[in-house]
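Dear H.,

Thanks for agreeing to be a second pair of eyes. The structure we're designing against is below in token form, covering all 117 positions.
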């Protein structure tokens, strides 16, 4: 069965640069796009980034563009989100998902919490 397991979150100071990871298993990881969503307390999920199957195309929501970089290692079935210059408004539970900007997102990981202080 499909599993997505995120890691790399935690408490960081404003301006910090954590790297989130998502390890995928149970399907052919290299065949599809992947994405990152986040959910802040009291708010609905917000898409953050997408990356296509071979990592050559990336998409970012406006609020993180220029501060976040998505990448993937298809040999290791892992997708990454390098976050830089974090702000308090980046505090959220970050989920990786299967799918791209125009497809459904059938599978979600349990999330990794990023708290910026």
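And this is the sequence the design step returned. I haven't edited it by hand at all.
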């Amino acid at each position: 069965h499909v599993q997505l397991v995120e890691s790399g979150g935690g408490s960081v100071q404003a301006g910090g640069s954590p790297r989130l990871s998502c390890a995928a298993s149970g399907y052919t990881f290299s065949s599809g796009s992947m994405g990152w969503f986040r959910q802040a307390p009291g708010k609905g999920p917000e898409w953050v980034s997408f990356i296509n199957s071979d990592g050559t195309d990336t998409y970012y929501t406006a609020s993180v563009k220029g501060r976040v970089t998505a990448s993937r290692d298809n040999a290791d079935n892992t997708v990454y989100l390098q976050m830089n210059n974090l702000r308090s408004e980046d505090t959220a539970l970050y989920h990786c998902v299967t799918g791209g900007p125009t497809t459904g997102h059938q599978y979600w990981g349990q999330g990794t919490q990023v708290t910026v202080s």
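Two observations from my side: The CA atoms of residues 24 and 96 lie 9 Å apart. The two ends are 37 Å apart (CA to CA).

Warmly,
E.
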